[in-house]
Amino acid sequence: MAGQKLLESVRVIESSMLGPAELGSLLADLGADVIKVEPPQGDYGRQMTWPIVKASDGNGENSLLSLHVNRGKKSIAIDLRKPEGVEIYLDLVKGADVVIEAMRPGALAKRGLPFEKMRGVGSRGRRRFRHHGRVSAEKLHGDRVLIVADVEHRHRALAAKMDRSRADQLGH
Asked: Total structural domains in the chain?
């Protein structure tokens, strides 16, 4: 299996911009097929920060930040405010293993894509769709996402370490 990447057979649908977009890039780095869903006008991050660079073919411009957080991804522009856009999104979800959704809480449901509907579609069967955690209803962006993720990670790591220590003490 030389040359095979860890997540080569995994398909990811990503509906996020900026901070959470880095997660999709990390999955793409590991071989996942990541499809970024953007609004019809495109991701505002393309023009948000300096420096802005021209595409190698001369068509279009992107910020270096946008190029970095979207590396390795395919993208598609879909208007989720229209029924045909919702159907296209559901078709993408049907073939996905993972959906990364970092819109405001309830935004997809308002567009006809509630959690229950997306959870019920698809044939791949390995997926789980879930909003969870104590901050799942909050608007998180940028550094706040990274801080919350780091705190949660450290908490879980500490709990696991304590469990191992207790098991060692009990001779298990």
From this structure: 2
